[in-house]
Design goal:
The chain is mainly alpha-helical and 263 residues long. Helix content is 53%, strand content 3%. It contains 13 helices and two strands, in the order H-H-H-H-H-H-H-H-H-E-E-H-H-H-H. Strands 1-2 form a two-stranded antiparallel sheet.
């Protein structure tokens, strides 16, 4: 939600954009320039004053509030409560996934067995959860960033682990336009972060291409799911074969100790 300070900051930007000085604004409002400078420096003014300045700028207050909302930092993750609410309703989770893929309202109702009123109801719930900002004509703006991810150990990822992962990896990945790679190696300090950032850019490229191809007819598009993963991990199926103190951190791993203790 926009605060008074956010609105004042946006007004400063609009004054600069329009080339209107504090002196000019003071003259238009019948105030002293020092008073104008003081209220802007304080960063707090009543809505009536903000409305007056908007009229001078020929700017609708709703438009000012919209610009403030669009300038706010976007979420990289949802809260635990938000995720619990989303995963508690299968159709709400579906709607969230569609919105994160930036499907239009028309695409959603034409693809899934969701009535128009039902679809609007779920969009409204996502708006109340703060995931989207619902706009007229059933349009929406995402309140999450390009680098958004579900909480690694949150309820949504748990849902995917239980209901989606096995089905996804059970596929053969044999199509000419499909790919499954498993690459194992050891990296020096800091390099894993660099690789993670590059993989993030690949995911963003995939998302951008998805958006660009939304203009194509549905019959000319195929659904794809890109899964990107990188973690510090050793094959647990082979840990009992490690030599003493030859584990990845120079000591006998806990998994190997457990195996030996139960032998």
């Amino acid at each position: 939600m926009a605060t008074s300070l956010d609105l004042v900051t946006a007004l400063k930007a609009e004054l600069k954009r329009s080339g209107l000085t504090y002196a000019h604004l003071a003259e238009r409002l019948g105030m002293a320039e020092s008073s104008i400078k003081r209220i802007f420096a304080k960063g707090d003014m009543p809505l009536s004053r903000i409305d007056e300045i908007c009229r001078v700028l020929k700017l609708d207050f709703a438009e000012l509030a919209r610009r403030v909302a669009e300038s706010q930092p976007l979420r990289r993750e949802l809260t635990l409560a938000q995720e619990k609410a989303v995963v508690a309703d299968r159709k709400l989770l579906l709607m969230a996934i569609c919105c994160l893929s930036q499907w239009t309202y028309e695409q959603i109702v034409s693809t899934y067995e969701l009535g128009e009123a039902e679809c609007i109801r779920y969009l409204t719930r996502l708006d109340k959860l703060g995931i989207i900002e619902l706009r007229p004509l059933n349009r929406y703006r995402l309140n999450v960033s390009k680098t958004f991810r579900w909480r690694p150990h949150g309820p949504v990822m748990q849902f995917f682990r239980e209901h989606v992962v096995d089905e996804y990896f059970a596929g053969g990945f044999e199509g000419e336009d499909e790919l499954l790679l498993l690459v194992h190696g050891s990296l020096g300090p800091g390099l894993s972060t660099a690789f993670a950032e590059r993989l993030q850019r690949v995911a963003e490229d995939f998302a951008q291409q998805h958006l660009a191809d939304q203009r194509l007819p549905m019959k000319q598009r195929k659904p794809y799911t890109l899964v990107v993963g990188l973690r510090s991990w050793w094959f647990q199926a082979f840990v009992d074969l490690w030599r003493e103190r030859d584990g990845p951190t120079g000591h006998t791993p806990a998994a190997k100790k457990t195996i030996r203790a139960s032998a």
